[in-house]
Each structure stands twice: as C-alpha cells, then as structure tokens.
Amino acid sequence: MPCLHKALFVVCHFMSEPFSIEDRKPIWIALSEFYLDTELQDSDFRHIALTILESPYTLDEVKKINKYEVFPVLQVNLLSTAGEWAGFDKEWLLNKIMTRLKSKTKFSDIGVEVSYQMFKWMSKRYWGKLEKMYNDIKVNPDTFILTCRAAYFNNVLPFQFDKSENPTYKKLDQIAINYRDTNRLQDFYQHLQEDPILH
Known about the structure:
10 helices, disordered N terminus
C-alpha cells in the first residue's frame, strides 16, 4: 500500500499542474519517435534533445510527460507485430493524447504507473542516449551541425558567400577549419550527411 500511495501522489501532483497545449505539442511529437518500430539514429536523438531544450520543460519534466501522456497512447505500437515505423500522423497523435487527457480521471494513471514499470525497459536505452545528447548540447552548443541549424534559422544558407561577414557564417567557417586542423574530417563528413534544416 505505501507504494500505491506514493505512486498516486506523484501522478496527482504532476497532472494537477496546468500546462499549455501549444507547449506540449512539440514534445508529444518528438517523443513519439521512441515508439516507432525502427532504430533511431543520432540525428533523431539530436532532434528530440533540441526540441526539449527549446521548450519550457526540463528533461525530468519531459520524462513525466512521456510516462503519463505519450506512453499510454503509443506503447501498444511497440507490442504490435506490425507496428508503425515511418512516423505517426501528427493530427492523429495530438487528438489521441488530448482525448485521453480529457477523459481520464486522476486514478487512471495508477494503471499507467504499473504498465510503465513493466515496459519501460523497452525504451531505457533510448533514454540513456537522449540524456547524453541533451547534456552534450547543453555543454557544447557550438558544434558544426548546431551552428548550421542556427545559420539556417538566421537566413544564412550554405555557400551564401555574400554573407561571409555574418558572425554565424564566420563561426561555421572556423568550426570547419578546426575539424580539418585536428584531423577530425571523418566526423565532419558525418555531420555533412545530416540535413540540419530537417533536424
């Protein structure tokens, strides 16, 4: 009984806090990748980590969002013999999560607590990779691919030489030179294979 009371307190405490649906949506969509029937790549973890960093939530808060809002809706996909692998329809996903949130009671998540303890092993490795990527970005936001992303959002496109005096352009140039001078061209080529605009 003490464990049940503790679980109930955690659930009620977290779910009683008001939140913005608009703030939640990018997190729900990003976390849905954990429930696809496919192997995630570094670029996927980077995308999820950036989504969290750009949100008003901490990583611990996102773990709770996953547990009580995304997991109950999508875990079944990982248990299916022919689960979705290409990506969930965003409108479907948002509607499913919001419908569940509207219809559930504060006791509904006690069942989620039990189910999560049974199945959390299925994404444990993913959470480890995500946490590492999240912390790496926080410690070193000036990597080549993240600077590429910042350049794109500041309308600085590849080979746009007329913007060579732009600080972000100069920063990209210096990072690329640093890769060359420290014999890390293989790492640099790997970054070039990722599309920073999509991630």
